[in-house]
Amino acid sequence: MQKQKKCGPGTRAYREASKQLKSGQSMSINATDDCNYLFLIIHAGLGNRMLEITSAFLYALLTNRILLLDRYKEIADLFCEPFPGTSWLVPSDFPLNDDEFGQSSAESYGNMLQNKAFGGGTDRSLVGNRLPPYVYLHLDGNYGFHDKLFFCEDDQQFLRGVPWLVMRTDMYFVPSLFLVPAFQDELGRLFPEKDTVFHHLARYLFHPTNGVWYSVTRCFRSYLAKAEKRVGIQIRIYETKGILQRNGPFPHILNQILSCAQNEKLLPEISMAEGAADGTRNNRTAAGSGTRNNRTIAVLTTSLSAWYSEQIQEKYDEQSAVDGVSVRVFQPSHEEYQRSRNKGHNMKALAEIYLLSMTDVLITSGFSTFGYAAQGLAGLKPWIMLKSENHVTPDPPCVRAMSIEPCFHQAPFYDCKARKDTDLGKVVPYVRHCEDVSWGLKIVDQTHL
Ligand code: GDP
């Protein structure tokens, strides 16, 4: 990370660039030096944050920029600095305030295009050959047509010269970078196996702080290390049952988990024989049609609710597994509801993402970036539980993922060259629609299809 050292916080280059930014003055098109920056506004849940940081880092690599993260969002409580001898956190005297930016910001690229700030229409020719000191990129789920032009080659050409880019996103937009012709050669060199982008970048960038790592290793040693097989089940519920019962309990989701795990032979079938075990957790000898042997499957569940893992454990205690294997369920926490700005809560969430990534097979909940982060770190293609409708267990209860990559949920569908909407899931063989979000895009390696 030579460039981060040369241009990052504490360097003369950074001081000058932030002075220029503070002055608010436009710059001559010839005045840009080789220290350009990408400032990322961090927001949303932890899975989203990991996806947005990874996407921004890749974009910074491809466009030769220094990535700087918003420092006030507990990132330093969760992750160590990935770049030795420098920092990825923006200094506290950074002149821009992240709260100022949103869809209606005049400095957003989409609004600048709409307001003809560059000359006329969507023509990016510059007024008097002057570059704005910064451009804000609004790439959140609610972004509009003009914001999405970010993913077009001509727009990238223009943005290349802007010294500061401020980005706000809550998505994994990497699949659309693979569709920008100017980036394709470099991406091919960086990732000969295309579906390993998140896996490599996340393992390079995210190093949990000591407190988080302590919880991960303690739980792993105590509950997972000795098992013959480790099954991770990530349960994320988007349905509601009244205002207070966000996570259920929903029997149709419990049924979905058990059906998926048993149909796909990730967990043993439960014996339906009469007179199965006596229902006590400690009875681990003769039970039902099978005799318990010494083999144990450790199930790591993660959820905001404790109910699902309690039920799974109860089922395997009451009626033994047909092949006599012991199934032991462990859930590190049940926080009940999401609290994105709470340090302890986020530390638990990160520890659980890492623990899931240490399992041998994974079942995840579709649509959830928490699950995407775990599968990507693990390098595992999960079985994805699709969203249920009307409180009915979907059939099939889960599908196998095509790749280990996260899904880009609100991907654009505009063909920049033809200037019309098109199905971007059909343009190249390595960018397809996601299993869980039919309008989203994800990277697959065609050699694995
Ligand atoms: P997504 O909303 O499922 O895409 O995932 P995010 O990680 O972006 O946001 C969900 C947030 O809710 C997490 O970051 C946690 O704060 C919390 N959360 C959701 N599921 C779990 C879980 O299984 N365990 C813990 N500890 N927290 C969770």
From TrEMBL:
Record keywords: Cell wall biogenesis/degradation, Glycoprotein, Glycosyltransferase, Golgi apparatus, Transferase
EC id: 2.4.1.-
Enzyme class: transferase
Its membrane topology: Single-pass type II membrane protein
Domain of life: Eukaryota
GO terms of molecular function: galactoside 2-alpha-L-fucosyltransferase activity
Location of the protein in the cell: Golgi apparatus, Golgi stack membrane
Cellular component GO terms, alphabetical: Golgi cisterna membrane
One annotated GO biological process: cell wall organization
PANTHER family the UniProt entry points to: FUCOSYLTRANSFERASE, FUCOSYLTRANSFERASE 2-RELATED
Family that this chain belongs to: Belongs to the glycosyltransferase 37 family.
Function: May be involved in cell wall biosynthesis.
Protein name from the UniProt record: Fucosyltransferase
Source species of the chain: Zea mays
Recorded name of the encoding gene: LOC100274441
